[in-house]
Amino acid sequence: TQAAFPDGFLWGASTSAYQVEGSWDSDGKGPSVVDMLTHPAGKADFTVASDHYQRMESDVALFAQLGLKAYRFSIAWSRVIPDGDGNVNQEGLNFYRRLVDTLCAHGIEPIVTLYHFDLPWALEQKGGWLNRHTIDAFVRYADVLFLALGNKVRFWLTINEQNTMILHPGAIGTPPGRELPDKKSLYQQSHHMLVAQAQVMQRCHQRLPEAKIGPAINTTSMYAATCRPEDAIAAHNWETLRCWSFLDVAVHGRYNALALRYLQDRGLAPQMLPQDTAQLAAARPDFVAINYYSTATIAASRGDASDVAPRAGDQQIMLGEPGVYRPEENPYTAKTPYGWVIDPVGLRLTLRKVCERYGLPVMITENGIGAPDTLAADGTVDDGYRIDFLRQHIEQIQLALADGVEVIGYFPWSAIDVVSTHQGYAKRYGFIYVNRHEQTLNDLRRIPKRSFYWYQQVIASNGHQ
Ligand code: BGP
């Protein structure tokens, strides 16, 4: 394709702390909610993960060899503040100082996610996001990071995929003996996260006037299954409730009217304190970050059990809602080995919608294909399907740029193999293979996959493929 990527485009890749770091209790780190999860039998847990905490320098050297202009990672809150709201653990903070310094030494722009699913366990025991105390704890934690890393970090992301945490809590899991929270509590948690996010964005702007901060929501487009008008309404409902309701508060500073009515009609509207409205209204992000994997196709409700179905092959993500809408198969799209719809054109469409709706630059902070990659006897990993997947998505980003969307960066998931949120190490996404299996750690050696050499060329030529 003809390159049309702006100079300074942030060609990157992504990871998150608990999925890549391991060393889950080293150097004073406190446990987080994800450390307490029970894992599906035979699947990798997060204790060692990809051992990145121990191999950070050599991993970053590989990222530099890949040619990354930017690297998106998350900071483990309970490494920096082990109990979430108490003393700062300097050793934990030093790890991230070293990571940022190492990235900068290689000319790689650090992009920091403040919180990626791993709430400190001590805060969870005090009620987690249901307790407004967590709002203050998050703002304080963010402030610690702004002060410690703000001289080198220019781009910050607030909360990763708040909508996944609220709408599909099963995708992240619950510790043994705990039930998934009911919907009303989830929306109350969500409200507290939104207030916390608004305060953190404001704090960032006060502390670091040059820095940019934004939310990172899993964002996608919904298609109506047919041209039946009722299906169009159903698809619109779902897009509003699943994506816009979260981003609208972050960007416009107030609740989406349709989403709020939906919550009120079902007795799910969160309790809001008088100051919340002002706090939400006072904060503005500098860009919108989206994690994009696939699209869904939605039809009007039938009002029976067929309204709800798991995303193919994935029991943790339930699409549809009884009496409101139901998922349908899309005959025009292929699927990944894990049943996720592959829809590069849907990325262009989503970028256009985000641009029109918010008028802000857009960063694509996740996109990728999970597959059971294998190390061949000759020591190579041929992930041609990943090259195809990413190439098609990059082509659509290019078209979106030509449409007038200001896309500022692309961060495929993931820079290196990481533990999948609930499918262990069988499902890999990285440009770099990690030589381990579910419970057999082997030597954790790093092996660049075929996609590594391909992406290296894409970056080196600023988008020529
Ligand atoms: C996103 C999460 C990531 C990552 C990715 C792939 O929702 O932000 O943490 O895991 O999805 O998902 P999975 O590992 O379940 O395939």
From TrEMBL:
Pfam families reported in the protein's UniProt record: Glyco_hydro_1
EC number: 3.2.1.-
GO biological process: carbohydrate catabolic process
The entry's keywords: Glycosidase, Hydrolase, Plasmid
Entry GO CC: cytosol
Molecular function as annotated in GO: beta-glucosidase activity
SUPFAM superfamilies cross-referenced by the UniProt entry: (Trans)glycosidases
InterPro entries recorded: GH, GH_1_N_CS, Glyco_hydro_1
Signal peptide: none
Family note: Belongs to the glycosyl hydrolase 1 family.
PANTHER family: 6-PHOSPHO-BETA-GLUCOSIDASE ASCB-RELATED, GLYCOSYL HYDROLASE
Name of this chain's protein: 6-phospho-beta-glucosidase
